[in-house]
Amino acid sequence: MARALTLSSFRKKPTKQMLAEMQKLFEQGAKEGKILGFYFTLGGYDGVVISEPRDEKAHMKHMLRFSEFVSTETLVAVPAEEVSKLVE
Description:
The protein is of the alpha+beta class. The chain contains three helices and four strands, in the order E-H-E-E-H-E-H. The protein has a single domain (3-86), classed as Alpha-Beta Plaits (2-Layer Sandwich), CATH 3.30.70.920. The model has no long low-confidence stretch (mean pLDDT 91).
């Protein structure tokens, strides 16, 4: 897996305690892959995580930890340079 863009929506109104718990989960997930960035967003989703997971199963394991707090949708992102090599 190249990079993963995970879009998330809160299941309930966020609190400071909830955000602190989520931060701990991010730190615990370091062995499943590298978190490149986490951003809160306006619009259809409440947040986005950009990561480089070890593999799909590791990423799923990490994201399932957040299921109490958020619903997620993950997109696989492949660098444009790699895609241009695939085009004939």
